[in-house]
Amino acid sequence: MDRRKAIRNTGAVAGGTLLLPSLLAMLQSCKQEQRLDWEPLFYTTDEANFMSALIDTILPATDTPGGLDVKVDLFLDKVIAKTYDANSQKAFRAEIAAFNEKCRLSHGDSFANLSDEDKAVVLTKEESEGAKFNGAVWGGTVGKQEPVGFYRSLKSMIIWGYMSSEEIGKNVLSYDPIPGGFNGCIDVASVGNKWSL
């Protein structure tokens, strides 16, 4: 064997050995990287990842579909893109950035990149802070409603999108597109689920 070739091969093996941990770390980081399988109308990629992570944390899939299963993230992207004016869209972006900054200060990364445990800690803290929605009677708010803040408003939108989806309306909630007769005196236990109509 040629001596130069042997030295070159030895150098390649040594270099490969040194590079192997770096290559494995790169491959691992690629596996954890989030990728979108849809094209947002309004969100940036980071905002879409934030929304998906928040929706999946609030409404994960269980024995019923989760928020991502019924595409709440796509629905809210369309709502914001088509119904918010420029100032409201700018304010929404600023609120997402502020929320992620709070996560970076308290947990070292943006919300979408946190562990499930850290996400739960962040949302538990958000739930304990600020005003809550007042009760309602016949569609009207009881008392003066204090501002509820970004997280609680967004959570309300997420739940609205979820409960409004066809999948949930037809297959999770009770559904009767053509209601029958009126039974005024029935046992409450016989009603079952909440009704979507």
Walkthrough of the structure:
- With 197 residues, the chain is mostly helical.
- Helix content is 57%, strand content 2%.
- The protein has seven helices and two strands.
- A two-stranded antiparallel sheet has the order 1-2.
- β1 and β2 form a beta hairpin.
- The termini are far apart.
Layout of strands and helices, then pairs:
Blueprint lengths: L2 H30 L12 H14 L13 H12 L2 H22 L8 H13 L7 E2 L2 E2 L7 H16 L1 H6 L26
Antiparallel strand pairs: 1-2
Could you list some keywords that capture this structure?
197 residues, two-stranded antiparallel ribbon, 7 helices
Largest sheet properties: 2 strands, antiparallel
Spatial separation of the terminal alpha carbons: 82 Å
SSE order, one letter for each helix or strand:
HHHHHEEHH
Low-confidence stretches: 11-33
Number of H- or I-type helical stretches: 7
Rg, Å, rounded: 25 Å
Beta-strand portion reads under 5%
**Average pLDDT level:** 79
Class of secondary structure makeup: mainly alpha
Q: Please count the beta strands (DSSP E, at least 2 residues each).
A: 2
The coarse silhouette is globular
Q: Strand order, biggest sheet?
A: 1-2
> Helicity range of the residues?
55-70%
Give a short overview.
Helix content is 57%, strand content 2%. It has helices at 3-32, 45-58, 72-83, 86-107, 116-128, 149-164, 166-171; strands spanning 136-137, 140-141. Helix 3 (72-83) packs across helix 6 (149-164).
